[in-house]
Amino acid sequence: MADVARVAVVGAGPGGLAAAARLAAQGHAVTVLEQSQQVGGKLGLLTVEGHAFDTGPSLVTLPQVYRDLFAATGGPLEESLDLVRLDPAVAYRFADGTRLTFPGSPAAVPAALDAALGAGAGAQWAALMSRAEHMWRISEGPFLRTPLAGAATLARLARRPADVATIAPWTSLRGLGERYLRDPRLRMLLDRYATYSGSDPRKAPGVLATVAHAEQAYGSWYVRGGLHRLALAVAERAAERGAVLRTGCAVRRVVVTGGRGAGVELADGEVVPADVVVSDADAAALYADLLPPDLSAAPRRALGRATPSLSGFVLLLGLRGRTPDLAHHTVLFPADYDAEFDAVFGTGRHRGAPQPVADPTVYVSAPDDPALRPDDDSESWFVLVNAPRHEPGRGVDWDEPGLAERYADSVLQVMADRGLDVRDRVRVRVVRTPADLERDTGSVGGSIYGTSSNGARAAFLRPANASPVPGLFLVGGSAHPGGGLPLVTLSAEIVARLVGPA
């Protein structure tokens, strides 16, 4: 595109902000329209009685993606943020009492696995990670950094039969784990990476092992002061490049004139004209609510064939006192992981009837960061369990009176049963359900990642970055290449490339 384009970005989540920064740096006139009063979307911040909580992602992976973003739009990342590599990355506790502290240094991982799980565990994991590294090298460029193009995307991946054999698109993540990992606890570690895309490891593709490889090879990172500062830094960079950020501006519809995107209409009736519209809204909401039905039929059919991603039930806990030897991230595994996925997705023993997980995996993020607590004798915890999305009448109605508080009590009891009892230390307790996530971010049902990766064809049912409407593009976790901060940021890179410089 040779001329300066007026660009309207719908939503100031991480994808929308990254797209705004890149497009503004490319010389376009960018306006970002955000329905809430603060930027960040799921990368939010809540402060209660001196306790500050990130309300979304709790770590940064693939930091090079952000370094690329900041380098392309101005000064280096390190001038805007204090990024700290976590070591240890995470501490795991299994139902049989086994504890495993996962080192931040890849070289130390095999020995740590042998020490915790027995001789041979490290070699099994190393063999799997070698396969995952090969998968990563094959798939990163043609898939993660390139627009989705159906059969053409498959053709890029299939340049060599050996590459197809390595990716093994017919193999699930669970199946891949069973091939390499004899210890069921190791397989549980691998299964967890399916949840990074809101998916079921029994149905998600084995290529998701690349997530484990990337996290181990490139590290898990924390932004000092909280991850919300990442959103603020990208917003500031976009503004420095000339983008206008407007909060409290809900978008009612995308204006289509002459068959192409021509701007957006706000809830108050104001029309913001544009030559290009970039939507960071949930793709399901975009195609169901913001476009005329005749222009969105095909994407809605594709979304209807995909399984929505899981959601999350969150406790934000302000605690008195300090917990000795607590890692930045702690994962408390249940005895029966399959029961969790059956409950969340309404499959197996819970077929057709998703429900809150009785004995869930519990994720605790407890940053040792003075900026997030009122004093040195306190902690601010983000506690997450996988949950079915909000679906009144068909699934779980998270607005049912009393359900959220009862389930919060249940999660605290599960934590206590697994050796992390903090009930007598709680001075702040905030409950956030999938229904709250839907209201706060516009994610349909509170599905964190839009659609899941359940099924070999799932990636090709995910909405493409270039919509069927010329001039309308999609970024964010519900669009290609998927959810999670790195992929969301890559979606913005893809769209900026599609739009081109002024």
From TrEMBL:
Biological or metabolic pathway of the protein: Carotenoid biosynthesis
Protein family according to the UniProt entry: Belongs to the carotenoid/retinoid oxidoreductase family.
Q: Which superkingdom does the taxonomy of this entry point to?
A: Bacteria
Biological process, per Gene Ontology: carotenoid biosynthetic process
Name of the featured protein: Phytoene desaturase
Keywords assigned by UniProt, alphabetized: Carotenoid biosynthesis, Oxidoreductase
The residue stretches assigned to a coiled coil in this entry are: none
Instruction: Write one Pfam family the protein is assigned to.
Output: Amino_oxidase
Its source organism is Blastococcus aggregatus
Q: The Amine oxidase domain covers which part of the protein?
A: 15-499
Q: Which GO terms describe its molecular function?
A: oxidoreductase activity
